[in-house]
Amino acid sequence: MTDRRTYHHGDLRQAVLSAALDVVSTEGPGALSLRDLARRAGVSHAAPAHHFKDRTGLLTAIAAQGYELLAEALAEAPDLRERGVRYVRFAAGHPAHFQVMFQPELHRADDPALLAAKEHASAELRAGVGDLPPQDGLDPRTTGIAAWSLAHGFATLLLTRNLDAPLAGRDPGEVFRALAGLLGSGQLPDNTRE
Fold first, then answer.
1. Of 78, 65, 83, nearest in space to 154 by CA
2. Do the beta carbons of residue 19 and residue 1 sit within 8 Å?
3. Contact, 176 vs 85, CB < 8 A?
4. Within-domain flag for 57
5. Are 7 and 44 in contact, with CB atoms under 8 Å apart?
6. 99 and 67 in a common domain
7. How many CA atoms lie within 13 A of 118 on its CB side?
8. In-domain check, residue 119
């Protein structure tokens, strides 16, 4: 008797994406194999290719999903600092998405779903800087790059565990909020000034 799992799966696309995110979280994107993911989902080895075509297609889908989740996380944040806090919390809550999203060599840059998701996330990021007055001759776009760099750098350091000791168990979002407030006011603590 044939196992029906090899022919039908309730939501194969999401099952494969979830399994892929688990692999990326534990072993990195280089460990992804559609054949292994099919085995994990209990379907034929060719079934994932119907949704993703190949490994690059799967990574592209992960990146697109990540950008949409990021846009949702940033939506309706009251100000730029809170967008940064939400960015950091998104990275902490979705480390596999975050890892894939910012490695463009892993996905198809011209994929329509990816392009739309990136634009949605970018619009949410830009919304936080649109009303800012120019700072020392910097236009809002340049200020936005600076803010994104701060949040992205903090998130990357967090995910690579370089902040474990400095955070000492404190909430990363709260630490980022305080840091962004200090930098925004130009008032760094005396022990951080050179």
1. 83
2. no
3. yes
4. no
5. yes
6. yes
7. 17
8. yes
Place of tokens 């809002």: 140
pTM of the full predicted structure? 0.85
Q: What is the pLDDT of residues 152-185, one digit of tens each?
A: 999 999 999 999 999 999 999 999 999 988 876 5
- 10 Å CB burial of residue 192 (0-12, 13-18, 19+) is exposed
For the chain, give me the number of helices (H) and strands (E)?
10, 0
Are residues 102 and 161 located together in one domain of the fold? yes
Task: Please report whether residue 24 resides in a domain.
Answer: yes
For 44, the domain range is: 1-52
CA distance 64 to 118: 7
Q: What's the length of the chain?
A: 194
Instruction: Give, rounded to a whole angstrom, the gap between the first and last alpha carbons of the chain.
Output: 73
Q: Give the Cα separation of 69 and 51 in Å (integer).
A: 20
Summarize pLDDT for 79-89 with one digit per residue, the tens: 889 999 999 99
Whether 98 and 154 have beta carbons less than 8 Å apart is answered as no
Domain count, the chain: 2
Helix, strand, coil percentages (3-state) for the chain, rounded to 5, are: 70, 0, 30
